[in-house]
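Handout, page 2. Input:
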Amino acid sequence: MTRHKYTHTGEKQYQCDICGKSFYLSSTLTKHKRVHTGEKPYHCENCGKSFSDRRQMTQHKYTHTGEKQYQCDICGKSFSHAAGLTVHKRTHTGEKPYQCDICGKSFAQRITLTLHKCTHTGEKPYQCDICAKSFIRRIYLTWHKHSHTGEKPYHCDICGKSFSQRSSFTVHKRRHSGVKPYQCDICGKSFSQRCDLTKHKRTHTGEKPYHCDICGKSFSQRNSLAEHKRTHTGEKPYHCDICGKSFSLSSNLTKHKSVHTGEKPYHCDICNKSFLQGAHLTTHKLVHTGEKPYHCDICGKSFSLKYNLNSHKYTHTGEKPYHCDICGKSFSVSSNLTKHKRVHTGEKPYHCENCGKSFSDRRQMTWHKYTHTGEKQYQCDICGKSFYLSSNLTKHKRVHTGEKPYHCENCGKSFSDRRQMTQHKYTHTGEKQYQCDICGKSFSHAAGLTVHKRTHTGEKPYQCDICGKSFAQRITLTLHKCTHTGEKPYQCDICGKSFTQRITLTLHKCTHTGEKPYQCDICAKSFIRRIYLTWHKHSHMNNSIRPKDPDTREKQYFCDICGKSFSRSWDVTKHKRTHTGEKPYHCDICGKSFSLKNILAEHKHTHTGEKPYHCDICGKSFSQRSSFTVHKRRHSGVKPYQCDICCKSFPQRCDLTKHKRTHTGEKPYHCEVCGKSFSQRTSLTKHKRTHTGDKPYHCDICGKSFSQRSNFTNHKRTHTGE
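Output:
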């Protein structure tokens, strides 16, 4: 009662003359001073161990006698002292009688409250005399000192491993025994440590008690908050003592060090493959055993991992219990929600220790790492092609087998890849939840938005390791590499011609069959591709309802010289060079300059004779992409540029521009000699020859010269008799 009264008066008359801390009772001050002096006056007569507090010694003695006379009447667990039983019972009742008078948080034990208060006061009374680091508990200081001395007093008599902390030793022993004493009362899952159970329960409750005081983001685990804060501070406290590289996570440092040592301590006893982490070895072994111990009780499908079974079950129930608190989207798997949130935050927590590149998804980083090692251990037994990942080999084999195991339940269409089916489903729902924050364009999936944003940033993250050329999309890089390797895996079974893409083979086969499956319902004209039909239908549409092409969408970027507007900022930059005359790209062969990099690249083809653009239908090759594009329209019959006066259509924009002058009478090209005007530049060029007498077309048979190509062509026929 005397002690209790002090809680009303708040009087703390006994003060420590070393640190200034005050206490209600003189006995408590006496005990406290032992923190500073290190005095331990109570000795165990059995083992000689010393204690600063009598109660601690009394409790210690029970470890010698093994006596546990206090038993829980709820679960039967026994304790060596009454206080232990009292605290234990609170795990059943949920009682937390010790409340923090600063933040109101409650605790089941007084010592836990005392330690908690240190988070408010910042008090850390136990200081290391070697490095001066301070701790809130003496035991933490004791454990810390082992880091200086290297002492590991706790030894496992099964595997011989040693530990500096008793708690770590206790947890380790459970790996051998398989004991998991802490069970979740919601799903029944068991854990070897109480803290793991506490963390796990938050997956059910959604509790995120740790908040970032900079951006307000919340986390379910304290260490996740600590790691997150480093994205704000840029702190990288873990340093490699070999190369000096720093990391924000200790796990990343551990993995990085294996780059230097080459150490992969976990070995498969079947194929001798080694792994950096034990969990990876466990998963790998299932490849050999084929074991799938987890079965769906609804459809009978089996899985090698429980996690995969749990995710699969949601396909039956349709349940999506994990919700994004930013956009409201729901997910059936918590990891997918975590990945999704990075779309909003831009967080990329996975870093390549070789080149420093960051990734939002662990798998992306794993795939990227293979670009450094070059390791491709999974080989196709049909064509010999090798892959970094077994999943990629599985997908590749479908090229040979034609297997399409993923079916859309709406329309029945089949796909060889799960992601293709997922993306296809959005065509039924029309859902486009991923919006570009620069131009506002929306996409049905995050990958589409990621690729689109590169049109604004100019980023091309996929680089060819042969020629160094970069691409915005992985698939474009894959197709490009075929130009180096010559690989054409899709072969026509009629004529034997090979192609780099399946769709190109499909189109090619139409030249044999004559098949044109896409028919216009207005004029009955048929096409071999759906997109050709779509373009063709524009020729029937009234201009007011025609869909927007790149030239009719919103133009929000303006030239400050002439006022012309553009839909992309890069187009403004290119346009301004028509005013400034800037030509920053120079040919290193002839010195000629160009305003655009792609024009320089195509110009170089005139020196090398290279014609990299090949028509898969007729085999003709072109040195310039624009010529190739126009040529393809001859096969497709597409004429996308329509005159809004007479509705005549043209395959090229320049043809439409010239045609419109027949309506407007515009003649923008003027002869500076006689003042005559022309509607086309070529007509002016021909006219000028009447003044200069220039005859650039020479007959190599009779030597006669002509000012116009048409006259020269007609003349040649007099020699050939054609």
